[in-house]
Amino acid sequence: MRFFKYLIFTVIVLISVVSCKKDDILKDSSAKLDFSQEEVLFDTVFTTIGSTTQILVIYNKNSRPLLISSVTLAGGASSPYRLNLDGLSGKSFFDVEIPGDDSLFLFVEVTIDPNNSNTPFIVQDSIVFSTNGNIQDVDLIAFGQDANFIVADRAIQTANGYLPYALLDTQLNKTIVWDDTRPYVVWGGYAVVDSTQTLIIEEGTRVYFGNSAGLWVYRYGTLKVQGVLQNPVVFQGVRRESYYQDVPGQWDRIWINEGSTGNEINYAEIRNPFIGIQAESLFDTFPPKKLKVTNTKITNASGFSLFTRYYNVEVKNSLLARAGQYSVALTRGGGYKFLHTTIANYWNSGQRSTPSVYLSDYALDQAGSAVQFPLYKADFENCIIWGENDEELELDFEFGTNTHRFKNVLLKTELQLSAPSFISIIQNQNPQFESYVDDDYRLRSTSPALNAGDATLLDPDTQLDITGFSRLASPDLGAYERQ
Q: What percentage of the chain exceeds 70 in pLDDT?
């Protein structure tokens, strides 16, 4: 009997506790929610491609719990926005309890439909919160952008799996022109310039790449990038939110194969790739092959700024800054000329163990033996080669190559330098960039690189610096002439 009395008493106590907890919810109409921001803003999002996730924090700054009657998108089921609250996805939620002095995380994403517009457009909605009869809202704002989409729809099998790609055109001997009317988005693999085709990219064009995507100029194809000083061509990752502005390795590379002497890149900005430019012969060693890079910036590559395998490359008036491995890796021989180029490797996304510049004159066969690939020219003139490592130059020669020449170069190295390979070298003196932290590689007034260039080395491509300033009087080293 006493047991049953005790049991009844216990049940009554439990019911009372539960009732008290329910009654403990704050029902005062003056109690409101607070939010981490008044609006959730998405930077420009390409149509059909979802955004990154934004976070809205919902605060209950009262000491007692609040019951949010509803959390809904004002646009309802047709809204382009999506919500995730407490691990549940949807466009509306009901009877959500938030403890006193606590918070909830609400995750927001958006996918925007095309509207056939060449200019960015605004897509708005709001999240509406109903609590104790109070209606509060947080605005949602996204800028949508229609684009020309190149989506991989084919694949070839390689030793490492399948390589997805899309042909820009199936017609041979075709000239394809990209202009600045709308951005180009390469998604899911490589955009391929096929054999005998030419891709011309006009000034002001912006090309965006998804993860692992790139531009592939296949054998006997040609690339001509025709930016100008005030309107460069930009290559970068597809994410345009501010967080991604300096995240390296967002896309793969510009990959150029053998067969053309007309590959040209002028006034381009290549941002945040794995490899900025890879120029190599796939199958044929001797057919014509040449790449000319002028007035171009390659920045923040997670691997290499420039990577070559037996190629003929000229780089002038250009900046190669911040790379996770080599800024310049010239492998398997070839012929190279760097004139008034700044190579500045202040890698800030981890530890870099490799030097800024690497040259070799061989490849390894299947047995691991060195096979000669002649390095018939490697000229660095009026350049700066600098970085945070003690050694920023590696000469990996198996066949006694002595065709490299560094003339009037500010160079960071612990090698013993002597003529004829090294002439008028400024060794291990800080170039004194204005602010490498802010990617400002202009020279300060006290830089040892000022007036240290050889004016007789100037050619029509380098009489003006990368900013259009004349350097005819007494040239400074690197891409920037101090004004």
A: 95
